[in-house]
Amino acid sequence: MLQRWPVWFFHFVKSFPSLPNQCLVCRSWPSTDVVCPDCLQRFAPAVFRCTGCALPLPGLSPEQPRCGACLRKPPVWHSAHAWVDYGYPWSQLIPRWKFAGQPALAAHLARWMRAHAAIAQRIAAADVLIPVPLSPTRMRERGYNQAALLARHLDATKCQLHSLQRVQHTTAQSSSTRAQRLRNLRHAFAVAEAHRAQITGQRIVLVDDVMTTGATLHAATRALLQAGAAQVDVLCVARTP
C-alpha cells in the first residue's frame, strides 16, 4: 500500500528541488522524482490512444487514430487525450490528490503529462485551457478543484478558471451508467454571459482528472460549444479501461 504523505511534505520538496525524494510507488530512496523514472517507465508507458475515447486499443496509429465505435458515433469533442490508464499506482495516487488533501501532486502530474508529445502539442495549439468546475457544494467539501490546479500547472498563461461554471450539483455517480450520468448532467454546466467573449471562436482544451464514461466531459463540452467555442479538445490524467 502506498504511504500517505502530508500536504506540507510536497510543498517542502517543491521548495527545495535539489533535495532527494522517496518514490511514492516503489519507495526507493533516494529518487530524482516523487515517482522514480523506473516506475514512470513501467506504469506510464507511451501508447497510442483513440483520439475519440482516449482508450489504447489494438490497431490504432497516427494513420488510423479512431476506433470503430468512435468512427460510427463521433464524440461531441474534437479529440480526447489521456496520459495513463486508471490503474495501479494512479488509482491510488489520484484519489490522494483529489480527496486526501495533497494538492501539490498536481504540479508533478502536469509536468509528466507535458512530457507526452501529443498532450504537449494539444496544449500548445490551444487558445484557452478550462478546467471542469466543481459545484459550490463540492468545492466547500474538498477545499480546492483538482482540475483547476492541474490546468494552471499545464499552462497558467492560457488558463481560465471561471469561464465555465457548474450550475447544478449532482451526487456522486460512480455507480451510474453512462446514460444515467448524461441525464443527470444535462444542464449541469453553463458559460456565464460575462465570459462568452472569452469563449467565442476559441480553441479550448477542457481539463479533468479522470475520464470514465465521458459524461461529464460531454456535458461540459456541449456547454462550451453552445457558448461559441470553435473547437473543444478534452484532456485528462487517466482513462478508466
UniProtKB/TrEMBL annotation:
InterPro entries documented for this protein: ComF/GntX_DNA_util-trans, PRTase-like, PRTase_dom
Coiled-coil segments: none
Pfam families the record matches: Pribosyltran
Superkingdom, natural source: Bacteria
Listed Gene3D superfamilies: 3.40.50.2020
Domain Phosphoribosyltransferase per the UniProt entry, residue ranges: 142-239
Family named by the database record: Belongs to the ComF/GntX family.
Identification of the protein by name: Phosphoribosyltransferase domain-containing protein
Species this chain originates from: Comamonas kerstersii
